[in-house]
Amino acid sequence: MKVRFCDNNKGKGKVLRRLEEEHLDVDVKVKKCLGICGPCADQPVALVNGKKIKGKDGDDLYRRIVASLDEEGKEVEAEKKGKKKLKK
Questions:
Q1: Residue 1 · residue 72 · CB < 8 Å
Q2: What share of the chain is helix, strand, coil (3-state, %, to 5)?
Q3: Please, which residues bridge with residue 28 across strands?
Q4: What one-character-per-residue DSSP string does 50-86 give?
Q5: What is the pTM of this model?
Q6: Beta partners for 29?
Q7: Do residues 5 and 29 make contact, with C-beta atoms less than 8 angstroms apart?
Q8: Which residues of 54-75 are buried (b: 16+ CB within 10 A; e: fewer)?
């Protein structure tokens, strides 16, 4: 799973560090620009597997990113289980 931050995004540092420390399986990078002009200058924002996630502040953004990662992880696991059943 991928999380991307815009280099100009305020408050990304704390969120970035927490993700890198607590979610080692997530590919976290800072890009020069994410191409979602506007939101990153106004509030904390990230792309999680291409989906825009916004938060009121850094802590809120972190919670929303983790929730999105958990949700996508469950979907991936469900798909894997479905494929295993089809193979039997």
A1: yes
A2: 50, 20, 30
A3: 3
A4: TEEEE-SSHHHHHHHHHHHHHHHHHHHHHHHHHHHHH
A5: 0.80
A6: 4
A7: yes
A8: ebeebebbbebbbebbeeeeee
Six-digit token pair at 36?
């979602």
Q: What is the pLDDT along the chain (88 residues), one digit of tens a residue?
A: 899 998 888 778 899 999 999 999 999 999 888 877 676 677 889 999 999 999 999 999 999 999 999 887 776 666 667 665 555 5
Distance CA 40, CA 35 (A): 10
Q: Which of 1, 7, 15, 6 has its CA nearest to residue 63?
A: 15
- Report the distance separating Cα 83 and Cα 88, nearest Å: 9
Task: Report how far residue 57's alpha carbon sits from residue 21's, in angstroms, rounded to the nearest whole number.
Answer: 19
